[in-house]
Amino acid sequence: MTERLAVYAGSFDPVTFGHVDLMDRAVALFDKVIIAIGVHPTRKPLFTLEERLGLLREVSKHLPNVTIASFDSLLINFCQSVGARAIVRGLRVVTDFEYELQIAHANADLCPEIDTIFLPSRTEHGFVSASLIREIASHGGDVSRYAPKVVCEALKTKYT
Question: Positive or negative, the Cα torsion across 154, 50, 47, 118?
Answer without folding.
Answer: negative
